[in-house]
Queue: 4 jobs
Job 1
Amino acid sequence: MNRRSNDIARATFKVEEVVNLTLEFYKRNWIEGLFLSSGVIRNPDYTMEALLRVVRSLRQEHSFGGYIHLKAIPGASPELIHEAGLYADRLSVNIEIPSESTLKLLAPEKSFSSVYTPMNSIHQGIVANRAETSPKRGAARFVPAGQTTQMIIGASPESDLQILRLASGLYHEQALKRVYYSGYIPINQDSRLPVISAPPLRRENRLYQADWLMRFYHFRYDEIVDDQNPHLDPDLDPKLVWALRHPEIFPVDLNRADYEMILRIPGVGVHSARLILQARRFGVVRTEHLKRMGVALKRAKYFIHDPSMPRSLQTVYPEQIRRQLLPGVGASQLSFFVEPSTPLLTTLAS
Amino acid sequence: MQNVFIQQETLVYDGSFEGFLCAVFEGIRLHLPVGRIQAEKRLVPEIFDELRAIHSEMDQAERVWKGIEKRGGAAVASMVRGAFLSELPGIETTLWHFLRKLFADPTGQFAHNMLDEHAHAVYSTARKVMGEVHRFLGFVRFQKSPQGQMFAVIDPAYNIVEMLASHFSARYPNLPWMIADSVRGLGIHYDGSNVQSFICNPRDLPSSAGASLGLAEASERDYQDLWNCYYDSINIVERKNTRLMVRQLPRKYWKYLPEKNR
């Protein structure tokens, strides 16, 4: 069962229509480029051939310089996919369901191998291309912006641990540039699919935060989720949750710690971590500098060593911090401070 | 008792970047007690102000510019230029303090000292300006005039129109286009090989910047309809998240979007 059994109207574009619309939209700077996908028409090769005609025409006849992201149709011949990779900046094959057993149940004609086969061949194509082409300008580049994939979250019972383990594998084995997590939105009724009232946007957001930790903050997936905690915390972001699970390594001394450690402080991003390293060559970095470097002190203040206080007095109490940072806590505190001032204002006005 | 009070001077320049560099040149050459540097058109005189008019000399400006590049590197030079284009009140004076400290540091590393208020102010102002340049690379929306020319009108907060030139000349190498800044009456024009800047009267431009079709050719309406149709069909209503949308795409830019101006 997939969109094939979905009884909705479909539109098919002619190749020239897609090419012309892309060029006219691009000329007006409404678009950066083209994201081209298709349901399977007749058979995979026929569909892939049609997609290929669009990108070939754009690149060769119209010397289109914009970005092109193309779906590789599972089951299409490797030669077609390879040629598409010479015109497109990015290719993607969607995993859809994060475990093979559920995939088999929901989409019997799809299997992990039908996804992994094109994915691996694109990966090998990229590796071979990077090894043989010199960085000279104009050398033919195969999929210069790399490949990506997408999986649907919440349509099947996988835990966040399973999802992040799969994503981590895709980043390491297939060297994907991005994994997209798409909260499930029901478009057709079937007893095999869950009935949900709203798409799991919160969960999707937490998964993206965990994904960022893996790609930019040097976290391993099993540091974020493990067998004891197979799901991400819906109330707090995964970096904060990790820090609360490891009170022993905090507070961090910004003026001594290495980049990796500074990067792990909740509220400190990649940009501010770099600024801290740069700034401390010139003097002592203090709390007042952090705010203008873009550090979110609301979270970071609990995890940073304050040089004016002895270290023995600075212990991180996870439970206390957790209570302080839960959503809604800040708002109720604010109203507590605002209310007493109201009568004062009215007295002044009268 | 000896009077140690030194009258500070306000250097008044013509408003151009070169003029500002000449003010820096004069300030350093004559060891002036610089209080402020201000553009002539934005001059707000204060009592007891000692004004000094600066004459723009291209070779002086050139020397200062080369000096910045040599001391701090190309990235620092473009940061100085970026911060200047913010046209924020007082930015010239901040840049003056920044440049004095930069020239006083033989290693040239001063520009990276984020603990210093001036270095940080220049850095963060330049970052804001570059952020706006980046957003306008997407929000410059071209329309076709009846003469077949692609044109766009924008009203950026900072004076960034000239910083859009290299991107769009590389993007449309064979297509003549022009971009006008309706706030400052400045613009750039590309004829298929070169970019030239021009000055225009803001009143000659369509009344509002953005997606409105003041001077456009009739077929523009058709393309906007097609675009809106595309926008509606890819839009997923269940995923609507206005807060996130406004954060990534502030409301002041919505006037450039055809789908928001039907």
Job 2
Amino acid sequence: MITLDALMQTVNGEGAKAPASGGCASSSCGSSDTSGDLSPEVWDKVKDHPCYSEEAHHYFARMHLAVAPACNIKCNYCNRKYDCANESRPGVVSERLTPEQGARKTFAVAQSVPQLSVLGIAGPGDALYDWRHTKSTFEKVVEKLPDIKLCISTNGVALPDHVDEIVHMNIDHVTITINMVDPEIGAKIYPWIFYNHKRYTGVEAATILRERQMLGLEMLTARGVLVKVNSVLIPGVNDAHLIEVNRQVKARGAFLHNIMPLISDPAHGTFYGLNGQRGPTPQELKKIQDACEGGAKLMRHCRQCRADAVGMLGEDRGQEFALDLLPENIDIDFTQRDAYRAEVEHKREAHRAAKSDAREILGASAKEAPLTVAVVSKGDGLINEHFGHAKEFQIYEVDSAGVRFVSYRRIQDHYCQGGLGEESNLARIIDMLKDVDHLLCAKIGGCPRAELAAAGISPSDDYAYEFIEPSIATLYARKRDAALEKA
Amino acid sequence: MAYKIISSQCSACGACEFECPNAAIRMKGDMSIIEAAKCTECDGEQPRCVDACPVENTCVKI
């Protein structure tokens, strides 16, 4: 039985400052993505990669370089003519760079963003079809910045031709976008592919695409390269089919599966946008993600960033590093980068201890229906943002088995606009959170508090500035134990 | 007898430049252009620049 003292000790943050005080050694019983569950070689590859490790994304930043614009596939959710500085979604960039310019931008970011750990080439275009540009950029970068991880994203058509070079260049992380394993479905997503100097269309194109993707995936995993599979959930086209995709990529050794919602708007000028194909609701997305549990591990913390995004996931500092703002010569101060990494080790230790506290609070008991909790956070694993300033919500599920991160849900406009709450924004937020039981934030005004409560979402600032996991565990344990006492 | 690129539609991705068997395509400033003297229209085969181009009706016959 949990005493109130034990609860209070945890929520006042004491447990978080010291390494785990009994119960469990901090690194060996981590959540599904800390070192405890992975071989040392794999953990070493993912521990600083914000996209491959949920834990790492709290501490490390990535940047994407748009240096490889040529593509060999046409996707119905992409429009190659579109480019806008105010859009934030995959495939969109503001300026295209030569390999020399790309390397210079990378050095500038490394100098002012010590969290930078990963350089990715992720469109627009295909990093492997446009391999000459990709390769030249990476070669220039690692010469001066050997501690950076290299990462690419591809549709897979050209992948089997480049596996040797990928391994040779120490590109440890490859993302393949796989939206189907059934060419009949593929024909509804891809009008054509360009392969062996020839354009293929329809089911024939999708059949070649599937063969190339599966072959490339098998070749990479056989060589020890970590592969993330991205799938775009397109309602009515491939939604339930993604469960089969998950099964097949797991069988071929994919490390992570990231199921992302289709972003579709007529203003984007894409085939889907212009033809009224809608994206999924957060609840539809969660349903498919939940149905894939037990298969290939799911990435839940993706924010669908721009192809030239710079910074922590969920933030984009790309405009600070526009080409005309970069100095000609950049010296990188490695002491800053090293100091930051040392600091991260402390923060990670505290966060792991907090997670282990959460497990102790929950204890072990019979399985009940889980609670869904939304959290507003600015980072570091803390409940440290005001409701009115929230740009996104972190969704967690909790039951006696543990506290599990489910997803991010992003909002276009935060609720509070210069001191005044916007009613229509609040209505949209409530709709987005309609399956949520509790909302935890650092502060919340009286009006949104009442409206959320009326919608069945119970808001609270009781856990302000505490670690997320033990707070949710405490909330859950209190509720559960109160119910037990009643019974 | 040659193809040309409609510059207002071209996204300058460079795919046609990779694929041209005659090395007739190059970047000129921000645009891809076809050197008409080198273009053979792929000798009666399906023109590769047309097939590789991501924007329909952008590589067209002069």
Job 3
Amino acid sequence: MAATDEFDPDLLAAFIDGRLSGAERERVVKLLAESEAAFEVYADAVRARDDLDADAIIPIPVRPPVTVRRPRWLTTGAPLAAAAALLIAVLPRVVSNPAATFAMRAESIAQPLTDRPQLAVALRSALDEPRWSATRGGVSAFVDSTAALRLGARATDLQVALAVGDREGANRVVAEMVNLLDSVNLSDAARAEYGEIRKRIATGDSTSALIGAAATADEHLRDFLDSRWYGVGKWLAAGELAARAHSADFFKSSETTRFIEAAIRSGGFAPDEVEALRQIEGVAKRGIAENEFETVRETFAKLIQRHAS
Amino acid sequence: MIDPRQWYVDQLDVINRIASSICRRNGVQGADAEDFVSDVRLKLLQDDYAVLRKYRGASSQTTFLTVVISNLFRDHRIKHWGKWRPSAEAKRQGEVAVRLEAAMYRDDLSFEQACQFLAQDTRLKVDRAELRRLLASLPHRAPKRLENGAAIDDVPSSDSADAGVLDGEREGRLQAAKAAVGRAVARLAHEDALIVRLRFFEGLSIADIARHVRIPQKPLYVRMNRLLETLQRDLVSQGIGPDDCDWLNAAGP
């Protein structure tokens, strides 16, 4: 049975166009929540619609002259993989999963901060004060922890800059990331992706589109670097910014607690650093007081300084 | 009242572009894509443009065509390829990942053959190293056939996957977990279920979900966290818990 036997294509199209409200919208939302067929059609349609809007469609290529054995079609695929993806997203909440904590996107890490009115000022201060000192040398054979941590810190700065609408700050951060990537072998794709974001900032692309592009680039960079220190950099920069912006919400967040626990157990920090992290953990658990933000900020700043220099 | 014949003629270019987009995003190319475009044209003409006559003007004409052609693609896919679909992770990573996944897991090509196949499309600027990285990041199993003996060492295992074929027990547990996820998502409010499906079944970003479902983006981050917590509780109540974490991380994307 064709999916359109189950629904009115004009109504679904009207939902995609944002023309429905009230009971009609409810009807379509219910359909999409309950019908696998309608959901699949909808998902393909919204992507195709985006392609049309972006004029991103290219002609169907001519058949490549490769002999392809006709397939033995597999019947596994998206539904099973999607279920696994969702479970993996949920399960880190069931048990603390350090890998998942370090792999979180900068966009998600910084999210509890973004309501703070002081955040824009805090970001400016952070960008104006060098987070690390030494200039790095030539191209590395491998991505080292220092470069990964620096890139992670800047990935957070970029998301925060975009979230507060600081395009000039975002531009500075992206430029620095591109420079940092110059020292990383085989990083052409990542450099190009951040270079593209820089162009889009300059050409006045919308903030929401830039946030999405930065989130995607962040995930690609995480996969490319494949270093826990990239995630650590994101978290440390977020902690430092949260303390600057006096964001109690950030320190109350269960995700922040999980990061601190994971960092303590990771074996990547010296004993005095572990002790400092334990103090922050204690402060976060009981609720951070106004007069403690500066001390916490200094702790995060020192950790960044030590591991990024 | 729109004259469907004139509409069809006027929109042929748009029809072709929509069909091309859907093919590209689903890893369909070459002769298969050409077949689909021909099929779309035929279906739109059939029964005196019966499909186009369903248009009442509730939506824009272009979006209506997009839904109709997406639906035709679904029929076409089921007829030719059964249940196989690109994974959310491949869709998130883009055309090259979708085509690599389709070549290996749908078309049953080896990694070597898939590389050669993709290399012939000069639009795609990828090298073997990039394809290896993509393959390692995809949620399915390792390529079933590898050539030249050492090729298996050529393809890195993902951090999250041994990339081996799932054995019976793991397959069973994954199916049970999938059923549990289905039940948990079905118990959510309709809009919440739609949001979760778009995020995890289709790999859309929060920003894209907000745009498509027409809801504010900023509160959606908090809402998503709450939804995941709700799903977590539901899954725990169904017996999916810490013991499942290791093998799920090994099986999933």
Job 4
Amino acid sequence: MTTEQNDPLDAYFDAARAKAPQPSGALQARILTDADAVLASAGAPAKAPPGRLHAFLAAVGGWPAMAGLATATLAGVWIGISPPAMVETLIETQTVEYLPGFDALLEEG
Amino acid sequence: MPLDAMSDVSDTGLLVRFANGDRLAAVALTQRLSPRALGFATRMLGDAAEAEDVTQDAMLRLWKIAPEWRQGEAEPATWLYRVVRNLCIDRLRKARGVGLDQIAEPEDGTPSVEAALIAQDRAAALQLALNQLPDRQHEAVILRHIEGLANPEIAQIMEISTEAVESLTARGKRALSAALSPKREELGYDD
């Protein structure tokens, strides 16, 4: 009867283990090049998720619309700080009375 | 951590280090696991160049899965053997152009086994005899008797029960003995 200890096949298995193929330097280099590529792709900055600015830009129509909005805002600020002569004239001369006679009512008590 | 100091780190520990950007862990894992992958692939395919391609592909899959590796689930070596096995089966199927179940079991050894025995090359004779085994017996015998794995680990790799592994290795060994013994006796190997 054949046992694990005196199995004639063991000599074949021993011979196969003794002849085990070893990875060449070139194969190991290929494997490590792949590892480097995976590390490099993992280390690349990830795309930031869309934030509030992105959502706002999308709502107003992107950067071109943003440029127009900025120009209008700056123009408004500038007119507020230093109103052109024409604007001042308009403010002084065109007074609109929304409740004519209101002043008279106050005076009469 | 220097490469020498990594000898105490488990395969799983090295994989976690690699996932955290440690290149030396990749070097240590390559030195540890690629010979096993290459040995198994070479014996499965019987072709050194194809076995190298399979080894590289399997290791690449290991690098890619590293960030998602769940500790305690499987040993990296067991996982790698399973990947190598699947890649080899794919290649064998493509080479044959038919399903594995359709491959007929060979009845006798071929003259080339005898030639290897005459050349007193036991490893070559065994490889030729292994190539004649049905695939699952072939895989189980390699993993058990050449790679030296325990039956439960082989069961995980082949995704079958431990009892099925025992049955496959027993049948495989009987077939190997049948292929090798008559020639061995004729040639006076056992004298």
